[in-house]
Every structure is written in C-alpha cells, then in structure tokens.
Fold this protein.
Amino acid sequence: MKQLLIMVFALNIFSGALAQDFQGIATYKTKRRLDVKLDSTQMNSEMHQRMIAMLKKRFEKTYILSFNREASIYKEDEVLEAPQTGGIRMMVISSQGSDILYKNIKEHRYTSQNEVIGKIFLIKDELKKLDWTLTSEVKNIGDYTCYKATTKRMVAIVENRMRINGDRDMYDDTDEEPQMKEVEVMAWYTPQIPVSSGPARYYGLPGLILEVNDGEETIVCSKIVLNPDKKVAIKEPHKGKEINQEDFETIVEKKMEEQRNRFQNNRNQNGNHLQFRIGG
C-alpha cells in the first residue's frame, strides 16, 4: 500500500511537470473588412484603387502567439515594410492593438506595450471575462478539430471618410464621437490543444482558439508548433510609461485629435496624408 501511494504521488508530480512545461507557438493571419467612403472630385479611379490596396495591406498582418497553460505573448511577426511611393503617407492609430501583448490567464490580467506617436506606454489591466456560448458545430482548421463558440462585445463604430482638397492634402474628415455597438464574436477552438488562450485578447475557452471573426476583422491560425525543441520565452514586457486601459484610450483620442488638426492646418505641405482610425 505504501509503494502504491508513493507511485501515485510520483505520477501526480510528473503530470504537474508536464502541464507546466506544455507550450507552443501559433502563427495567425489577420484580415479586416474595409468600408471606406472617399469624398473627392479629384481622386481618379487609379488612385482610389491604390488607396484601398494600401489599406488592405496595412491590415493584413502575421502575428505569433507563444503560449503555455498559464500565459502567452502575442506580437506581430517582424517584417520590413516596403517604402511607400507616390507621395502618400498613411498613419493608423488604435487604442486596442498592441505591439506586444502579454496575457496571464491564471491571474486574469494583461500587459500591453504600445508605441503611440513616438512614446511607449505599458498598459496593465484586468482581462475582461468573455461570456462564451459553446455550440456543437464542428469544422477542421488544418489538422485540428474545432468547435464553434460565440460571445458579445461592445465596439466603437467610426465611419471612415477621407477627402482630397485642391492642395492635394488628404485627411480624416470625421469629427464625431464614436458610437458603441454590440457585435457578435464567433470563435473556433480546439480541445486537442488544452490551453485557454488565443489571439489578441481572446481567451477563456476549453482549448486554443484558432479562428476569430467579429464582423470586421478575421484572425485565422495558419501554423502550430507544439513543444518545440527550443523553450518558448514568455516574458512580460516592462518598457514604457505604466497606465491602465481607460487612461490609455483617453490619450489615444487626444493624440488623434492633435494629428487631425495638424493635417488640416498644414494643407500646403508636400505629399498626401491619410489618417485612418480603427474603433474597437
């Protein structure tokens, strides 16, 4: 009996060690639906198509999620962007995106490192609990069997309008405060990878989330490596001014207003400028 108890105790220790060491790397591709209204009598069809192509490329990115059972790091795959041509310069400001996003599922918190107009912020806050509804709907993503889950969340809806005036200056023409709207989020998770994490700030399902769609943005996993030979480094970011999410969103709104006023007050400068705001 004593030997049996020792064996059970040893198995429990071994199982705990396996759970702690379980880790992986998932690659995600993002794509955003664009509904941009261009109000201009001077923008020809070729320029219009080029603007839309630039915007689509700007939001089609690759992200890497490094995870274990307790925490994860989510950040954009580092690639060199081709220089923009044709005198058009584009600026995108968001209060929801992250340069580096650390999620601690066990402690229900996150740390997001963001750079806004040359200044680095370190946003620390609680992970919002997502009220998921599990369904029996199934589909395969790669080699994994996935199940559908849905939830609701509030997002800021901003109508994006751009225009070009006679001085060939392009700027955001939206001054209204963003309106909040409830949207349905659809996710596909796989119990074959027993971690409660996923891309961006999504988490809380009984398996790794491989796909998310909120009606505006789609995030899909394209590659998974489980327990790689080289240990996955999951280190919480520490660089930047520490702040909470609400205060950071206030700062972003202020910076956006400053940039909008600057573009509008400098219409005689060379080149075109595009400021594109993403709500959420």
User: Anything to note?
Assistant: The longest strand covers residues 144-157. Residues 162 and 172 are 5 Å apart (CA to CA). The two ends are 59 Å apart (CA to CA). Residues 25-277 form one domain.
